[in-house]
Amino acid sequence: MLARIQSIATALPQTRISQPEVRDFVAQATDKGLSPRIAAIYDSTGVESRAIAQPPEFYLGRADFPERNMVYLAEGQRLLEQAAKEALAEAGLEPGHIDVIVCVSSTGIATPSIASQMLAPMGFRADALTVPLFGYGCAGGVLGLQVAGDLVRADPARRVLLLTVELCSLAFRFGDLTKKAIIASTLFADGASAVVLSAEGDGPALGRFAQHTWPDSRAMMGWDVDELGLGLILSRDLPSFVHSHFAPVVDGFLAREGLDKAALTEPACHPGGRKVIDALEQCFAHLPAGLAETRAVLAHHGNMSSPTVHFVLKRILARGQSGPLLMTALGPGFTGAMGIVHR
């Protein structure tokens, strides 16, 4: 039995901030302001605005990890409950109908998991299976779908709720003006998603998924842990890596699935950043409008890590087109994730 998408919902924090506002906020960390060269980066990343978990004042100073993680627990659960309620309503289900909750998140620590803490407040059954997944990073939206789909196929009677939430802004360190930190401040944002899957109905069906991890590539992306909590590892060579390493892996995956890339419509790609999208578009040169939906999500929401590809997927599915749909994302490992959705 195929696992089918019954609904997709997304949720955002209430605080929105424009790219010029972020630039001006970061500039407060130095008496001289940002150099014209650094300031110009904020105008070239493809991000226009995004949502963040707290008002800008929270990010002044040096909040320690316990304080940051308290925000993660409270705001993360609030966003997931909002997304879950919307997804369940769209699927015509009550919380008690859900058998498994898979929760993907890599921007905070929750033990017990956020999913388990949602059971009683939302009315999920006490015997619902909770499956927390940590460490997937930006690849979590695709790999989470794979795990949720496998759980449906293992028991077609199951209804599975896939949740993703990332509060990337909590890794921001005010006053850090390194190149890596500046790039992160231009891109990363906060958000959540919820996807209901089951073997019922005729919704989009999950096909084959694949994961490819390159050896000796940990320095590409990930977390370092220090007194402030989670500190970003991010390589500036990521766009060239996409072109030279990820594109052949995607081509091989499509070949194994018997799919002609030139016949595919726009894929749902995780928007790592403008230069990453530029590199991905070289892989799909047959598309006259390129990765339009991926660029639109980056512009309006930034890079929210794992939920972001679900924002793109929701927009593409709303078009009502038929045929196989490719999903891609890249995350810590360094890992490439791919999957096929049949519409």
From TrEMBL:
Q: Name one Pfam family in it.
A: Chal_sti_synt_N
Q: Which residues form the Chalcone/stilbene synthase C-terminal domain?
A: 210-317
What top-level branch of life does the organism fall under? Answer: Bacteria
Q: Does the keyword Transferase apply?
A: yes
Query: Keywords on this record?
Result: Acyltransferase, Transferase
One biological process term in Gene Ontology: polyketide biosynthetic process
Which one of the record's GO molecular function terms can you name?
Answer: acyltransferase activity, transferring groups other than amino-acyl groups
Catalytic residues (UniProt): 138
The Chalcone/stilbene synthase N-terminal domain covers 61-200
Q: Which Gene3D superfamilies match?
A: 3.40.47.10
InterPro entries, A to Z: Chalcone/stilbene_synt_C (IPR012328), Chalcone/stilbene_synt_N (IPR001099), Polyketide_synthase_type-III (IPR011141), Thiolase-like (IPR016039)
Q: What family does the database annotate?
A: Belongs to the thiolase-like superfamily. Chalcone/stilbene synthases family.
Q: What name does this protein carry?
A: Type III polyketide synthase
Naturally occurring in which organism (per UniProt): Sphingomonas ursincola
